[in-house]
Design goal:
The complex is a heterodimer of chains A (591) and B (606).
Chain A: H1 20-24, H2 28-60, H3 65-114, H4 117-120, H5 125-167, H6 169-216, H7 218-223, H8 227-279, H9 285-327, E1 349-357, E2 364-373, E3 378-382, H10 389-396, E4 404-409, E5 412-413, H11 419-425, E6 426-429, H12 440-445, H13 454-463, H14 467-471, H15 490-503, E7 508-512, H16 520-534, E8 538-542, E9 554-559, E10 562-568, H17 569-574, H18 579-590
Parallel strand pairs in A: 3-8, 3-9, 6-7, 7-8
Antiparallel strand pairs in A: 1-2, 1-4, 4-5, 9-10
Chain B: H1 3-12, H2 17-49, H3 56-105, H4 118-159, H5 161-208, H6 210-216, H7 219-272, H8 277-290, H9 292-317, H10 324-328, E1 354-362, E2 366-374, E3 378-383, H11 389-396, E4 404-409, E5 412-413, H12 417-420, E6 426-429, H13 440-445, H14 452-461, H15 465-469, H16 488-500, E7 506-509, H17 518-534, E8 540-544, H18 548-553, E9 556-561, E10 564-569, H19 571-577, H20 579-593
Parallel strand pairs in B: 3-8, 3-9, 6-7, 7-8
Antiparallel strand pairs in B: 1-2, 1-4, 4-5, 9-10
Helix pairs in contact in B: 1-4, 2-3, 2-4, 2-8, 3-4, 4-5, 4-8, 4-9, 5-7, 5-9, 7-8, 7-9, 14-16, 19-20
Classes of the chains: A alpha/beta (591), B alpha/beta (606).
Domain ABC transmembrane type-1 (chain B): 32-306
Transmembrane segments (chain B): 20-39, 59-86, 139-159
Membrane topology (chain B): Multi-pass membrane protein
Chain lengths: 591, 606
Amino acid sequence: MRPFRRPARRDAGKTRPTTVLGCLRPGPRAGAALIAAVTAATVLPLAAPQITRRFVDDAIGGAGTRHLAFVAVGYLALAVAGQAARTLTAWLASRLAWDGTNRLRERLAEHALGLDMTFHGRRTPGEMIERVDGDVAAIAEFVVAFLLDVVAGVLLLAGVLVVVLTVDPRVGAVLLAYCVLIGFGMARAQKLAVPSAARSRAAYAALAGDIEERLAGVEDIRANGAGEHTVNRLHAASGRMYRAEFRSERIGSGLLAGTSVAFAAGTALVIGLAAWARQSGTLTVGTGVLLFQYTQMVRTPFERLIDQLRQYQAALAGVARVRDLLAERRTLPEPADPRPLPASGPLGLRLDGVGFAYADDGEPVLSGIDVTLAPGETLGLVGRTGSGKTTIARLILRLYDPTEGAVRVGGLDLRDADPASVRRRIGVVTQDVQLFAASVRDNLTLFRPGLADDDRLREILAEVGLGDWLAGLPDGLDTALGGDAAGVSAGEAQLLAFARVFLTDPGLVVLDEASSRLDPATERRIERVVDRLLAGRTGVLIAHRLSSLARVDRIAVVEGGRIVEYGRREELAVDPGSRFARLLSMVEVAR
Amino acid sequence: MRPVPLVMSRLARSSGLGRYVAGGLLWLPTYLLPIGGGLLLKAVFDGLSGDRTADLRAALWLCAAFVGLEVVRGVVIVTAWAYGVYWWEAAVTTLRVNVLRSILTARGTAATRLPHSSGEAVARVRDDVDDLVQVTDDLIDLTGTALFGLTALVIMLAIDPAVTLALALPMIAAGVLSRLLGGLIRRLHRRARELGAVVTAHIGEAFAGVLAIKTAGAEEAVLRRLRDHNRRRRNAAVKDRLTTDLLDTATDATVEIGIGLVLLIAAPAMHRGDFTVGDLALFTTYVGWLTALPRSAGTFLYRLPQAAVAVERLRRLMAPYEDVEDLARVSGVWFRREPPALPSPPRHDDPLQVVEARGLTVRERLHAVDLRIERGSFTVVTGAVGAGKTTLVRALLGLVPLDAGTITWNDRRVDDPGTYLVPGRVAYASQVPRLFSDSLRENLLLGRPNDDDRLATAVELAVFDKDLAGMPDGLGTVVGPRGVRLSGGQVQRATAARALLRSPDLLVVDDLSSALDVETEKLLWDRLADAAQDGRGPATLLVVSHRRAALERADQVIVLDRGRVAGRGPLDELLEDCPEMRRLWTDELITEAEDPEMLDETPRRP
């Protein structure tokens, strides 16, 4: 039974797998090719012992050298064909594994990018690399191995059992019972191994996260003369890694040794039975060799199975972690009936008794925030660092949902608005600017090629005062910027962030300490650009300095998560009791 | 010695050569016991096919002995493995520690050696290190299979030299083939690795910049780019895998072909009765195990070039003057106890009188800038955005490579500012500082002895005391990417405290104004000035700022404009004869007068 089809998404046309297995499943044609290759790789080796039996019995029976040579050549041909089939399987399997795991990587990245800031605030980029790429790599390795060693191995095993059962039902029955026993034992043992493998992987992810943070903070460490200390901490983390790995590997090696012993017992059993049957005259020597060869053939797949079990543990741990990540839910619920924000024009903003507390500590960060902005109006938020201005900005951007009250943009509660339209219609420049190891163009458009043509990009760079900077770049818009903002000053990075906002056509703009990295002189240069950006748009401006708030319509003074003064700028200005009026008089004095 | 053998010989010694050798010796029985197994099977089958009535009891005893042999092998495997894990982790840790130590402490600038993203660096420290340890581990495998091969060959030669030779030929062919494919595999592998690093770098940056991406709604575009990178990496990886598999297949095929040849050549002898069924059983058993030899030789031979790539990539993370010797140096590991405590940093015996820089030049950013800072002075570097302020202090501190220029400390030349101008001489609070996912105490100390009084002083001087009092866990609060969110200003003041804790002669502070309000910045300079008077804080300051509080206090102001000095001297002089200073100053006056924090000077609401 098929579940109800999900409503088609905007980018429909291709189905989008949502589970780990769904991502890994190959297409029908590729699947069929793989099945054919695996079958060939199984059947061909199965035929080989039949030839050796013939050879031994014929040799003992006194057949001519010519006949024996003919049989031997047949064996050779079979052997080469079997190997070719195996290579083909490997090639197909690795293609499918990469396609599948790439889908999984993309799915994970998509899901994780969709999670909200409460999730990202707690994770380092290094940890995310490990979870989006590292865990999946373990799965990829396993998928190839699974197809080659597990599926092909199990098929070969089944083939051997069927053949041996037809050759000698008694020996076949014993071999079957014995294989079932081993299979059962392995399944039990594997349950034992998975949790310790998971712990070992977690220790590894923590280590990778640590190293990533330290490599990202190289200058802080060097400038503080803390290099040797950091090395010592790596030693301690490596020790934890060793202890987790030791426990996990002890179980893995026990499994390997156990299977090896069990296998030898199986071989001994079959040979013992053959010796007994031979003595009672119901079995030829050739059949004895055949049975022996078949039990030998069981060994390789079994050993590979166990070998894979270690990868399987890692992969299973990987799958579990992938599932965990996919199970992370947005704390921002998708609206049941998403309604788009008005597609053009300025958007009104209304904060209605808004309060906010982080879910983990419940400590209120904001309470009782009331703000009303008509479309096109601008609001200046003033207050000390940590007073809650940035949180207000994040609520307006719907990076968080308020715990009390509602944020309405364009008359729509953001919780009911189509998230895509929220991103399109609300723009922001924040304090920290992340640049990518990509071209200037990609850094501006954030990889959206259709967003603007090169002329528009140049125009915008000139507008934000980066025209000279662009002219100085060796390859213009194609110049690759280093990641981690290498080669770009903090102020230039901030200007690039401005340029990013200019590219879209938001109806509401949030400038969160946007000018904080800019010198007054440069700030003046772009002030008129900010003016142009705000013309015909609603704006929320946060700055330590009032120079960029000089033309706002309303002012809210924030202190300790509350608005302690709020009103129209000109009304506050003529009210001698207001903080704002006192501020203005100070400005006059300074001028 | 060539790089890879050198690294391997060092890695073998990473936890003491004894452990590697002992571990290797422990493994050997697992390779050699199958020899006995083959002989037992030969006896069983000769019994089965002999003319005399097979002695069932003897056959069963032989079978029991066969199982017993495998039990011994199992016990050895478990023991050797447990032993081997220690060696493996020690080897991995040794390489990682050496690379990290070089990045964090070697002379010269670290920034130029690191790849674009820290994600890519992590990938190197993860995969390349694993490659090198793997190849060293493979050596034991190779030795074991070679020993088995030699013994098996001697036994087989004694039975039938012609058949044995027929077996050896395809294996030699496989060995030659793997040598021939070596260059191709190396190229393909390097390409797959590079494209893999591109993927991890992209993921890392995407999550580092997740706020920008989300607020721009650029998730789809970032994912599309990820898809492109993924596709390129997939194509390279499949090719890489295919060539490796072809090589594997070639070695596997040698066994099958070998058995075929045994049958072909043994046919007349078998016909005559010189070659028994037991011999056939022994040969087919040994051939199965013998495959391990070309396989492990092949694996080793194809991993060797990969190891060469890994060594080269890791070496590029090290300083130019360091070589492979430094990469693989046996530096010890501490898995079961604490690493040795660090010696307290020696109190340097050359207190700052004057630090001087001449002709500091950084391509396209800084042009022949001179700087002179005397003990007890307060120097402010100011200028418009992109004027080169940050570049100047970073060049002075050796954080960006100089294209020209000299630096002297008390008139003695400083060869490597990056390792000389560090605590206790100089401490630096950068513009975009980082805290690590750890307690605040650990973040401030970073290896300094834990001294509550000194911590309290540094925290107070950095105007971080009030923030700290507001944190429920105080200095125990876990901050950084995986901890409590601190505001930009809090991070900057915490890093200022971190610098002050190091009692430097010279404190260098890059622009604090991005996250500090005027009032707090003024308070910071006030406290630092007082501390300089009574010796609780650094006597000499070099700061980047455009704030009045800093400029008015300055003994000398250095005005930069597009990488060149536009003026230098006390503020009042500059205001008279430096137009750039006048322009900056006017802007700043207006800005600060408008500053909302001035509101706080009025009485608060009850």
